[in-house]
Amino acid sequence: MRLIVCGCLAIFTIAAQAADLQLRLRDAAGDAASDTVVYLVGRQALSADRRFTIRQKDKRFIPAIAVVQAGTTVEFPNEDQVSHHVYSFNRPNAFELPLYRDDLVPAVRFDEPGIVVIGCNIHDSMLGYIVVVPTPHFGITDAGGELRLTGLPAGRYRLHAWSPRLDPLNAVALGPVDIGGRDLSLQLALDRRLRSAPAPGGDDALAWDEY
User: Fold this and answer.
1) Which of 14-23, 75-84, 128-137, 196-205 has the lowest mean pLDDT?
2) Using an 8 Å Cβ cutoff, are 27 and 172 in contact?
3) Chain segment 19-64, per-residue pLDDT in tens
């Protein structure tokens, strides 16, 4: 799939002292690029010893899309009355959690950046994504395709975006961004519209892997 990144007229302001970045993402049709992971990487890759939780409820992963900093340990509690067998084949973050339920809460530490597609070996409709990034500066766009990143130290960063509706296994590099008192607006242009996300836990949930 061919991707085109276009610069637009300056609309949003990065306050020089606050070092906040306000973004609005759109696709080629002008529709909001919602539920898109966005992250900024500085000169050095950074990891952190943190914890995050992805629940299993009603045969769904909650949240279905998660972004964590490298070094984060993710817990996978099962809140259903049935057992789940959670796994991912995506190296170097591949893992397997054999059948479990009730009070057992297994955890996996993700040390390497990359996209981790997670599923359940028992319930094929269950599908989720973990985006492991080498930076603490990340977020997910809202329904309007907007995101605000705060507390950014001044400097040059590389801006990346990811969505299963773009490419389920690769992030898109959007180019450099200089933080420190400049206005910025960013438009993400594709050669096709973003397809609608399948209903979580529905029969078409695996359709995200067709991209």
Assistant:
1) 196-205
2) no
3) 788 888 887 778 888 899 999 998 877 778 899 999 999 999 999 9
| Residue 138 exposure: Cα atoms within 13 Å on the Cβ side | 24
Length of the chain: 211
Domain ranges of the chain: 3-43+139-190, 51-133
Tens-digit pLDDT profile for residues 75-92: 999 999 999 999 999 999
In angstroms, the CA 84 to CA 79 distance is 10
The alpha-helical segments, DSSP class H, found in the chain are none
In the CATH scheme, what is the code of domain 51-133? Answer: 2.60.40.420
The per-residue pLDDT for 136 is 95
- For β-strands 72-75 and 51-53, DSSP reports them as parallel
Q: What is the DSSP letter of 26?
A: B
> What are the strands, taking DSSP E only, across 135-199?
138-140, 146-149, 155-162, 172-179, 183-190
Q: Running DSSP on this structure, what letter comes out for residue 180?
A: S
The domain defined by 3-43+139-190 folds into Immunoglobulin-like (2.60.40)
Predicted TM-score (pTM) of this structure: 0.81
| Cα angle for residues 154, 52, 156 (degrees, 5° grid) | 15
Nearest residue to 164 via CA among 126, 111, 207, 134: 207
And the tokens for 65? Answer: 């899309």
In angstroms, the Cα distances linking 77 to 5, 80, 84, 97, 104 are: 39, 9, 10, 11, 7
